[in-house]
Amino acid sequence: MPRKQLQTPAFKSEVRQDQIVCHLKQEPSVSVDEVIDWDPLPVSSHAKNTVNPIRKIVDALSVPPNPEKSLIKLHLGDPTLTGKLPPCEVTTRALVEAATSHKYDGYGPSVGFLEAREAVVERYSNKNAPFTADDVILASGASHALQLAIEAVADAGDNILIPAPGFPLYMTLCRPHGIEDRAYRLDMKRGAMVDLKHMESLIDERTKAIIVNNPSNPTGAVFPKEHLEEILKIANRHHLTVIADEIYGDLVYDGAEFIPIAELSPKVPVITCDGIAKRWLVPGWRLGWVIVHDRFNVLGEVKKGMIALSQKIVGPCALVQGALPTILRETPESFFDNVKEVLSANASVVYNSLRMVPGLHPVRPHGAMYMMVGIDRAVYGDETSFVQGLIKEQSVFCLPGSAFSAPNWFRVVLTYPEEVTLEACHRITEFCGDLLAASPLSSDVLIDGDVSPVLEDEGCPVADEIDFDSGSSTESGEPSVESRAISPV
């Protein structure tokens, strides 16, 4: 039977398409000379205090690249942009099947579909860190998972310890709520391990949690078991929750081993924040999760709070939730092995190339997707000028360390094809050679082939307000109270 046509109501006069277009393009009816008695609406303090340091710093790097050289973007932590690391076919097929099934077109529970949460349990729960689907809250990416955790554990006036160098979003998530972010040092002379003394010195009665990022963005450090246990001892002594940012999880290489901190923590409650963005190479899909490891019900009220907070976004993307069980169960290990091989190869290329450049001090990573490179200020100036010059002269875009509270460093992304990484290293070497040739220090301080650092502290000053050159610290060598906080970007 032919389908019956819907009857539209008749209008008194026809409206032509050209009349509609004319109406849409019509000028505003208010004259530019007309005055209204409205005052400008001020922005909320919450919005005004929400600042992403990376965005601010990237905007300040607005210099034109060299038009004669192709642009190499070593600053973006998005593995999809390089063309070398596409997502697994299993992952994309799972999303297509979820979409075409039409089972996930509607709203789901704010904490996520049960089958998706059970898939997280199936993959990550074990005898050392057991949990159930009731301990899982799905989020719109790991960044949203971090937001849930931070907002649930701390109030205005409280403080949370964060790493420096570290992911700047920690600051962004704390400050609009009046939560103080206190930065503990990562010792770049010791492979970016936590300065445990400094960490503990920052704790007071308003400290609510310690954020531990392992593997680390931006350093690429992977914390060994013994180091994680020392962090847990501090947390246990002061009854502090650990918020574990483990988005890079098993993304380790060159013999490193990733150990989830919750597996070492029978007493200290751990809120793990994770997701599919980095290891499954789909950061735009925006699906992450919170796992509450809490054997003694210390976080019972906090978990209720995170469930309440999850209702703000009415749950993450239903389609990706529908695909999640297949993604977690069926992605072959060979896919992850290939990603690790690319990262390891690029890390070797960058490290072996830049360590031979006078005044540059790369720290070899063993996880995540990045490498930090220290620069000697006496030779190259500050890191922002260095990065700007690198863009202008060589069309290589790195991210200055100030984006991560690490002045005198820059970060390199390791996700490009190896030939592109080699070309980038060649250009960085050439750029440094030109600067050295023009520098009066090149003959007085740096002997040909000498890669020893010019600055004290091995050219790698720690990212805080202490001026190591002037020696402004307490007699004990520990930073003074006034200098503990990282200065905001």
How would you describe this protein?
Belongs to the class-I pyridoxal-phosphate-dependent aminotransferase family. Pathway: Amino-acid degradation; L-phenylalanine degradation; acetoacetate and fumarate from L-phenylalanine: step 2/6. It catalyses: L-tyrosine + 2-oxoglutarate = 3-(4-hydroxyphenyl)pyruvate + L-glutamate. The chain is an alpha/beta fold and 489 residues long. The protein has 2 domains: 53-84 and 334-469, Aspartate Aminotransferase, domain 1 (Alpha-Beta Complex), CATH 3.90.1150; 89-330, Type I PLP-dependent aspartate aminotransferase-like (Major domain) (Aspartate Aminotransferase, domain 2). It has 16 helices and 14 strands. The strands form 3 sheets. It has an 8-stranded mixed beta sheet with strand order 2-9-8-7-6-3-4-5, sandwiched between helices. A 4-stranded antiparallel beta sheet has the order 10-11-14-13. It is globular and about 65 Å long. The relative contact order is 0.15.
Separate helix tally: 16
Distance between the termini: 69 Å
Instruction: Please bin the fraction of helical residues.
Output: 25-40%
Poorly predicted segments: 3-15, 447-489
**In the residues, how many domains can be counted?**
2
CATH topology of the largest domain: Aspartate Aminotransferase, domain 2
- Corresponding CATH architecture of the largest domain: 3-Layer(aba) Sandwich
Number of strands: 14
Strand content: 5-15%
Structural class: alpha/beta
